Amino acid sequence: MTFELLTQDPRTKARRGRLHTPHGVIDTPVFMPVGTQATVKSITPHQLRDLNVEILLCNSYHLYLRPGHEAVARLGGLHRFMGWDRPILTDSGGFQVFSLNSLRDINDDGVRFQSHLDGSTHFLSPELAVDIQAALGSDIMMILDDCLAYPSSHVDAQRSMTRSLAWAERCHRHFEKVQRPQALFGIVQGSIYPDLRKESAERLVALGFPGYAIGGLAVGEPKPLLYEIIDQVEPYLPEERPRYLMGVGTPADLVEAVGRGVDMFDCVMPTRHARNGWLFTKDGHIVIKHSKYKEDPEPIDSTCACTVCRTYSRAYLRHLFIANEILSSVLNTIHNLHFYLDTIRRIRQFIELHRYEDFLGETRRMGAH
Asked: CA 361, CA 232: separation in Å to the nearest integer?
């Protein structure tokens, strides 16, 4: 994998780049829809291509448990298995194990956990996290890290950060032995503490990863603090490597984080919200089940060019949701993903025009959506 830095906005840290991977080129900034179990819920790979999705995120924890990474490998790898010929990023499973809480036990060797499917016991080491992702055949894989909830004490955060660094070294060594045509990204940890974030970033950069993620966010911290942490970490990340903010966030979060030097994003919000009837618009969100939309002939967003807004009324979409029709999730997902991807398109456009500060101001005036 190689990364080109194409241009940078003169008044912010926003930047345009290009990632070259075994399964195609990715323009950055980029948003990755989440395809947890080798599928983005409610939408087909063909529809994702029509939306011009450039890269998906899949979850190695879920695929390890079902159908199994070795089975996926025997079937030709994740791309062939799910019928997706564009790039894929896989996460290590660290966040999913973190979220199991009472079902897991973490020590310096790795994580012992119980499957949420059948209660069976498994042990996930840094080396196995690499092996799982190598078998899946993703273009970009992530190190195994130790993620903390917010708030955490400095003592707990330091212990977690130190463990994550040790795991990063083990992942790095094992990845070099595996020798696969994939890229392994490091993950900066350290909770909300600037000294820990600095140490984590500097020691990861010394290992020489081809890309760096900012992890341990979107776990309950206030939004201003999230932005502050990005500002703290960014100076320690090499300019010539892509920066990935994990699990964030709203469209406004994307705009803010790009202005702080972030290149890559993933979040379940557009697809999960779609299934719950929460739809994004330029004027904020609408909750389609509300009775005021029962006979509303207007589209979700009159300025949106997606096929849903060009074809269907709010009244019809409300009817589908109230009737619990599968098509409700499909159409809502298409719209929300289009909204996110169109936000990314506008982000790129304003960076190229060297007017990103104007776009930031416009987004802030409209408020977070």
From this structure: 22
